[in-house]
Amino acid sequence: MLSGRQRNQFKERRQLSLDDEKSQKMRKPRGKSRREGLTVEGILETWIKLKPIVMEEWDENRDELIDLFRKVRDDWLQNDFSGWMGANRFYLGTADALRFASSKKKTNDKC
Predict the structure, then answer these.
(1) Helices in 18-93 by DSSP H: which ranges?
(2) Residue 75: which domain range?
(3) Please, which residues have CB within 8 angstroms of residue 32's CB and are 6 or more apart in sequence?
(4) Number of domains into which the chain is organized
């Protein structure tokens, strides 16, 4: 879970990465996909059907969003590695697996 400071850092970095056109598009009112009474559970249960509707209504492009995420992530990693790591924890067991794989690599390199 992100702390308040980390959320603010992410928002600032995301905003810096957006060009003016994209920034203006994000401020436009959204379409019919914003329905009253739609719960988080309802969104999660119907996400496969909702996603294409939302993407079209919000005039979003999958490849552009992927590229934007990559740019924000790379910038954040380059400029604030510890902040990124604090906000993006390893999946349970991943760190141990990496340590194990790294130790095996070092052992094999010595042979």
Answers:
(1) 20-27, 40-57, 62-79, 81-87
(2) 4-110
(3) 53, 57
(4) 1
Token pair belonging to 48: 């496969």
6, 86 Cβ separation under 8 angstroms: yes
pLDDT of residue 34: 60
Q: How far is CA 78 from each of CA 39, 75, 85, 107, rounded to the nearest angstrom? A: 37, 5, 11, 31
Over the stretch 58-81, which tens digit does the pLDDT of each residue have? Answer: 899 999 999 999 999 999 999 999
110 has a pLDDT exceeding 70: no
Distances in whole angstroms, Cα of residue 31 to Cα of each of 39, 40, 42: 17, 18, 18
Structure tokens at 24: 């203006």
pLDDT at res. 62: 93
